Amino acid sequence: MTATTTHPSPTAVARPSRVLAVMCAGMFLVLLDVTIVNVALPSIRNGFDASTPLLQWVVDGYVVAIAGLLLAGGTIGDRIGHRRVLLTGFGIFGAASLICALAPAIGVLIAGRIVQGVGGALLLPSTMAVIVDVYPDRTAQAKAIGTWAAISSLALPAGPLLGGLLVGWLGWRPVFWLNVPLTALAIAAALLVVPDRPGRRHGDRLDIAGLAGFVVGLGGLVFTVISVGHHANIAIIAISATLTCAALTVAVLSARHAPHPVLPLDLLRRRDFRAPNEVALIMNLVFNGLLFVITRYLQEMQHYSPLAAGASVLPMAVPLVVLAPFSGRLTAQRGPRPALVLGCLLAITGSTLLTQLHTHSEIGWLLAGLTLLGCGAGFTTTAAVAAVVRATPPDRSGLATGVSNTSRQIGTASGVAIFGALAGTPNTPHFANALPFLAIGAALLWTAALLISFVAVDHNQRP
């Protein structure tokens, strides 16, 4: 089927479950690479004699590229068809993984991670847009989103575990080699099962100025936070902050005047669209910020092996897998607010338990806290995505899911930058003393998400 073929009904897909499986695999790969490097950071540091700020950029270079380009990826998919964008994203992601695996220096590794993020930015919005397309029924769609959320969310805690296995046995480079054959298989599967449908929005010109301003502004913001946290030269911080403000100003001005802005201000002004994205941003900020700090805490303060450190955060995985589909069913029956509220309450409790972490704390506090955080994220993830989808016209599904995923990745990048900067370097008194305060901050952020869910998420947003 070519781009000139008449757009078929979504019911033309005989086995949408196969399409869902490929979309889940693509999402899983991209999100796996957010966290799989966490347990590899000490080995990367030793191999390249890298500083803590550079190690933060191994994580954030990838995430910032995803967050900065996701909106463009969604818009391009809406214009030319999500299958094309999906395949291109897989190809870039696989090639960049090869660059990372062969990197001779930390700078090359960070550059490879940025290119990986470009591929991920094309993949992420297309996975959700394709699912929405092949599951037009709202009830079936909510359940499919629940499955997608369960599989993709598993990547967050599975990353440290799988990374621990690979790093403990083979070193850090196989963490990236793993992506190469998996990406090739995903491309073959997508060619076979994903329907080739034309784009729905023709003639939209990409907002280059807004896109450039957003990417530079987001990268500058993360750079500034990391620089402040590690006491960089004040002149560097001032220049970075100034450029960040200027770039974000360009992005906002372009969004107001461009015919088809990369930042959809009309959607962002709507409370029913904005609120679940705010909750998702907070969730990822706390989740990934704590994960970055805790994996280093376990390896560099508690002297866990990479595998043991990865296994210690595994309790987040089981509740994510079990509860995300249940959240999908709850959302299908009662709307997103009940699942969001329940998820926030569980996460507040888990964050509170993590205030007991210190140099010689019992592992039970960590396991209990992470389990409850996983339960909270399991309920919250599916409900937030479903709320965004329901608040969006079908012909803008790619852009909307791009905004949704962008908010998550901004949260991830901000979490690694902020929590990493506040925690400082492991094996110092400051790092140990910062852990309880970071947990308190996490509980306060989840409380803000709870208030947003109560006040701003429409309780009448039903199937």
TrEMBL record:
Metal-binding recorded as keyword: no
Subcellular location per the Swiss-Prot or TrEMBL entry: Cell membrane
Topology with respect to the bilayer: Multi-pass membrane protein
SUPFAM superfamilies: MFS general substrate transporter (SSF103473)
Keyword Transmembrane helix part of the UniProt annotation: yes
Superkingdom as given in the UniProt entry: Bacteria
Residue ranges crossing the lipid bilayer per the database entry: 20-42, 54-73, 85-111, 117-135, 147-170, 176-194, 206-228, 234-258, 279-298, 304-326, 338-357, 363-389, 410-428, 434-457
Record GO cellular component, one term: plasma membrane
Domain Major facilitator superfamily (MFS) profile, residue spans: 19-460
Single GO MF annotation: transmembrane transporter activity
Main location class: membrane
Key words, A-Z: Membrane, Transmembrane, Transmembrane helix, Transport
Classification via InterPro entries: MFS, MFS_dom, MFS_trans_sf
Name of the protein in its database record: MFS transporter
